Amino acid sequence: MAEPSIHPDRPIGTQQRGPVVMRRSQVQHSTSEQRLLDSRGPSDWVHTDPWRVLRIQSEFIEGFGMLAELGAAISVFGSARTKPDDAMYIAAEELGGKLVGAGYAVITGGGPGVMEAANKGASEAGGVSVGLGIELPFENGLNEWVDIGMNFRYFFTRKTMFVKYAQGFVVMPGGFGTLDELFEALTLAQTRKVTSFPVVLFGTSYWSGLVDWMRDTMLEDGKISAADLDMFTITDDVDEAISYIVKSGEMADAAAEEAAAAAARDVAEADSPEARERREERRLGSDGS
To answer: Domain 59-242, what architecture?
Structure first.
């Protein structure tokens, strides 16, 4: 038999825990404060989902706080397995330095390989070199060329930082993680969850097969539109990649300025004597005067 409720206006066997209602067998016989203040209780609660929410929240807060004043930046992705004598490592290092020269900070995943190379190029060029690492059993932390860095527990909070604080992506040859970041960016742009930004696929021999498949299979089968293939460019030239990013940024700035000017014109026109007179005529007409 359920215990009587101490609140006469609640059904028998009902318990309120903050916004949560519990009834019948789900009623607990201790309060949140009792469990908080009782040091003799079990400690496995720190591994439960509600506690993880606080950890997730803290990652967002720390990431936003760290990058809020970063300024214009480009996220560079690529394989952690790329060796220093690889042509892509050398290109990534050159890319990092030239992005700084174009006025951008460089954001990577903070690991070895392509990420290390881009961070190295940015740091040696005197720019801001950012590393957003991830807690993995086979990773050794942030590379030595990261000047501002943070290690994340969760991929999705880390992804938010890559997108929120970058004005473009350069995607160099990589594995599943690189593809994940590439298609995350393209999906967000395609669905207009973010303002469109430039995406550069660096390495034509590596990416051409994927681009051909998207064109010949996805587009041909109606799964994407032709405009979706215009969301990125493919190149082997660092200077061409930089030029594409800079021009895209200039076009985005011009579009933003035009949108702001149009909005200002709309406000001015809405407040003109003619507009006020039309509104007054409509008001008088609607009330029968």
So the answer is: 3-Layer(aba) Sandwich (3.40)
The candidate with the shortest Cα–Cα distance to 5, out of 171, 242, 15, is 15
Q: CA Rg, the chain, in Å?
A: 27
- Which of these, 263, 199, 268, 192, lies nearest to 229 by C-alpha position? 199
Q: How many CA atoms lie within 13 A of 111 on its CB side?
A: 22
3-state secondary structure 12-40: CCEEEECCEEEEHHHCCCCCHHHHHHCCC
SS3 91: helix
Report which of 190, 224, 194 is spatially closest to residue 210, judged by C-alpha positions. Answer: 224
Distance between CA atoms of residues 267 and 282, nearest Å = 19
Distance CA 43, CA 244 (A): 54
> Could you write out the three-class secondary structure of 199-227?
EEEECHHHHHHHHHHHHHHHHCCCCCCHH
In 135-282 the beta strands, taken as DSSP E runs, fall at 148-152, 169-171, 199-202, 233-235
Residue whose C-alpha is closest to residue 75's, from 210, 235, 228, 185: 185
Q: 155-191 in b/e burial notation, b at 16+ Cβ within 10 A?
A: eebbbbbbbebbbbbbbbbbeebbeebbebbbebbbe
Question: Do the bridges between strand 14-17 and strand 20-23 make them parallel or antiparallel, or are there none, so unpaired?
Answer: antiparallel
Neighbours of 68 (CB within 10 A): 9
The answer, as to whether pTM is greater than 0.85, is no
Residue entry with tokens 């200039």: 250
Q: Express as a percent the part of the chain with pLDDT over 70.
A: 82
| pLDDT tens per residue across span 31-76 | 655 655 666 666 676 667 778 888 889 999 999 999 999 999 999 9
